[in-house]
Amino acid sequence: MTRTVVESKTKTAIIGFDQPFCVIGERINPTGRKNLAAELEAGDFSTVEKDALAQVAAGATVLDVNAGVVYNSNPNPNETEPPLMTKMIELVQGLVDVPLCIDSSVPAALEAGLQACEGRPLLNSVTGEEERLEYVLPLVKKYNVPVVAISNDDSGISEDPDVRFEVARKIVQRAADFGIPAHDIVVDPLVMPVGAMGTAGLQVFALVRRLREELGVNTTCGASNISFGLPNRHGINNAFLPMAMGAGMTSAIMNPVALPVPMSKIEERKAALAAAGIVVPDDVDLEQFCKLTGLGSTKPRAGKEMEAIRAANFLTDNDPSGAAWIRFNKDPDADTGAGGGRGTGRRRRRA
Fold this sequence. Notes:
alpha/beta
């Protein structure tokens, strides 16, 4: 049975066909987040701290750390990203005990993260591009870490799932040349938006089955890609994730957190109630108000996607006796991580 082992200093997460689904929290990433990018350039890591704690509380098994911000003061990421990656890794692993996923397109930043990381992190990522293979695979071997393998190569991203499968096979074979076993490769078959390609879901389900049966590898994806550009993205994501799990997918890079309801939404709901003749007291408990009116919560909490994953873990017998499901539904705010990590208190030596 294929098992990919990822470790922090004190905790082990296992990605595997017979394991609870591994949730890799994606929020520590400045891509598309202008405020976070500006904070990082200014040396402000308060949002990183909040995102780390909130994702683990919501049930993330592993945290992805991406330092890919382009500074206005220095637009060369080869100079700025390695020291920033080191700082972020040190900060995050000082706050939480889950394993980390080091995420960068800058080779020097990957190695900086590997040097700073305690335990056995997941490296994100290698592709089928020759230059990337030649740099990343020796790093994977040197530090004895598992790696995310993305199914695109020098020709780009193919819409043909057979082509993407062959890219994955190529990466697995090239990794074997370095002595890297298939169980240390987690393939991302690339999820296309279903709004642009109606067969995107069917494609990835078929690809995941082939990757499991023919290559014996674990799989992951950027889960939100499936719903890109569509309304009610959570509804699509909630259906996609259990279906992908049923096809054999063993992890996903995703946001496990439902963000707090902003005050603007609360005021809009109060105004709507007032227009209907319902007066809301000025001193109303805002948390109770949000829950009673269906707005959500004033605090970060596990998102609906996490609820779907927990249910699927139960249905696939990866939640013995439904203990995690029952605990979560008794008190959702008290759940601190039913995503599948298993602490062992040991640290794997690097080869």
